């Protein structure tokens, strides 16, 4: 087994090493390769690609971080009971801080539900529309 975590800044190197090792070990039984890069505190944020805004299903967009912006990215699902309280708290934080945070802070809910329609209906029923909601298959 070969396993190594690289910092996000070395993502290209990690990808190249991973591909090279997999080519070399192809066909050899019981060989595991796990070379990954991970985002850590202080690392530049990577663009999240091909997500759908739940209010406009079927339209893929990219979420790109802008320098100076603060993001709270909440991975959640409508079927996850422990996810409901934090999402309600996100909504409350946005309501309480809208004047101070205006344009500087984004709270983004990224759902792992089966479809965006389910998420959109849940968000509307709960009144959680001030959080930016996206879905990714």
State the end-to-end CA separation: 30 Å
Task: Spell out the helices and strands N to C.
Answer: EHEEEEHEHE
What is the overall shape? Answer: elongated
Please give the share of residues in helix: 25-40%
Number of domains: 2
Mean pLDDT across all residues, rounded? 90
Q: Low-confidence segments, ≥5 residues, pLDDT <50?
A: none
Instruction: Write out the CATH superfamily name of the largest domain.
Output: Glutaredoxin
Sheet with most strands: 5 strands, mixed
Q: Do you know the CATH architecture of the largest domain? A: 3-Layer(aba) Sandwich
Computed Rg: 19 Å
Q: Which CATH top level class of the largest domain fits?
A: Alpha Beta
Query: The CATH topology of the largest domain, please?
Result: Glutaredoxin
Total number of helical segments? 3
Q: Total number of β-strand segments? A: 7
Which structural class fits the helix and strand makeup?
alpha/beta
Strand percentage lies at 25-35%
| Main β-sheet, spatial strand arrangement | 4-3-7-6-5
Description:
This protein has 137 residues and is of the alpha/beta class. It has two domains: 2-38, no CATH class; 48-135, 3-Layer(aba) Sandwich (Glutaredoxin). The protein has three helices and seven strands, in the order E-H-E-E-E-E-H-E-H-E. It has helices at 11-25, 81-101, 116-126; strands at residues 2-7, 33-38, 48-53, 60-63, 70-76, 105-111, 132-135.
């Amino acid at each position: 087994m070969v396993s190594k975590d690289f910092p996000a800044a070395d993502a290209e190197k990690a990808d190249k090493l991973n591909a090279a090792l997999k080519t070399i070990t192809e066909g050899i039984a019981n060989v595991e390769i796990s070379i990954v890069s991970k985002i850590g505190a202080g690392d530049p944020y990577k663009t999240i690609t091909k997500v759908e805004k739940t209010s406009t299903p079927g339209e893929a967009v990219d979420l790109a971080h802008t320098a100076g912006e603060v993001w709270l990215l909440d991975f959640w699902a409508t079927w996850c009971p422990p996810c409901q309280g934090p999402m309600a708290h996100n909504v409350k934080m946005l309501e309480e801080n809208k004047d101070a945070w205006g344009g500087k802070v984004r709270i983004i809910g990224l759902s792992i539900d089966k479809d965006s329609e389910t998420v959109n209906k849940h968000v509307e029923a709960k009144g959680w529309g001030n959080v930016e909601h996206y879905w990714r298959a």
